[in-house]
């Protein structure tokens, strides 16, 4: 077996794992949207129905190598995600994610068997500002780290406030 064919085999295995992970995280997103609908005083399926009209799921894997001087560099500038939900799996050991809270950066250290859920711009728009998009960044670390993000949102990116939440 050549190196190339072995590499293809590894990608094929990864594809199946990613397909299953996408399915499970999609189910989690549906449950979160149901709870968030309740929190907005809407029917349980209101947000979920909006995403069924135009769904998009994308995965992004990221490897950050060790950085000898992390205080001198920034991994990923502060930003908000344009999608609805970002479900993030972080490798254990090295922290890199920070969120802005009350004007200060707070480190979100990785926990075993845990996901980080960031809300994005589409959810802020759909909720008419009742839910806020998370400002976050990634910082470099002396240790290597890996993260996997699953982005869930509207495929065409067009979001309007849900009718029941539109301020008159």
Write the layout of secondary structure elements.
Layout (H helix, E strand, L loop, with lengths): L2 H37 L6 H7 L2 E10 L11 E4 L5 E6 L6 E5 L2 E4 L8 E4 L1 H6 L9 E3 L6 E10 L14
Antiparallel strand pairs: 1-8, 2-7, 3-6, 3-8, 4-5, 4-7
What does this entry look like structurally?
With 168 residues, the chain is an alpha+beta fold. The protein has helices at 3-39, 46-52, 121-126; strands at residues 55-64, 76-79, 85-90, 97-101, 104-107, 116-119, 136-138, 145-154. It has 3 helices and 8 strands; from the N terminus they run H-H-E-E-E-E-E-E-H-E-E. It is globular and about 50 Å long.
What's this entry about, in short?
The protein is α+β, with helices and mostly antiparallel strands and 168 residues long. 30% of the residues lie in helices and 27% in strands. The protein is built from three helices and eight strands.
